[in-house]
Specification:
This protein folds into three domains: about 55 residues, no CATH class; about 50 residues; about 70 residues. It contains seven helices and no strands. It is mainly alpha-helical.
Length: about 180
């Protein structure tokens, strides 16, 4: 119960900070009022509009609606494959676009990470298909894995290692009696 109370206070403070900071940035009064009402709706958890803007997780109602729609469209494209087009490329591109949409719904700012990983893996796959040399193929695969695991390591474990290093090199506080 205390957690929810603190979370509500945090949201209230964040709301007032956003309003005071961004008031001077908006030239148009109507746009500022829209932004203010958007933040107000996000603040109210019982409001339907606030629930619309929440993150889509695997265990959410949004995903329960999203997944069957994507599934049906994917198989409808597969049904049309023999009649309209001959390769599963359209199906794969649709699935890729749906994956990007799902990831962007969670947080659009991190969409560039999955794009970098996707293009890196796609480019590495094309290079692996062209190369016959085993040493070159190992190098390509190693570089591809380093890029993807490097991105994962930075965004998942950076905070943990940074706080551990700071705590190791920070002297303990003095004991007062």
């Amino acid at each position: 119960m205390i957690f929810f109370s603190l979370q509500k206070q945090y949201c209230e403070i964040k709301y007032h900070i956003y309003i005071s900071v961004y008031k001077n940035h908006f030239k148009n009064k109507l746009i500022f009022e829209f932004y203010k009402s958007y933040l107000f709706l996000l603040r109210k958890s019982s409001n339907f509009a606030a629930k619309f803007f929440r993150k889509m997780l695997f265990n959410s109602i949004d995903f329960a609606i999203f997944m069957p729609i994507v599934f049906l469209i994917y198989w409808a494209l597969g049904y049309c494959r023999g009649r309209i087009f001959s390769t599963p490329m359209i199906q794969n591109l649709f699935l890729l676009a749906a994956s990007y949409f799902f990831y962007a719904w969670w947080d659009w700012r991190f969409l560039s990470l999955i794009l970098v990983c996707s293009f890196t893996n796609y480019g590495a796959g094309l290079l692996l298909m062209k190369n016959e040399n085993a040493r070159a193929r190992k190098t390509i695969l190693t570089l591809c894995c380093l890029v993807c695991f490097g991105i994962l390591g930075v965004f998942k474990y950076y905070d943990f290692f940074a706080t551990q290093l700071i705590s190791i090199f920070t002297p303990p506080p003095p004991i007062t009696i």
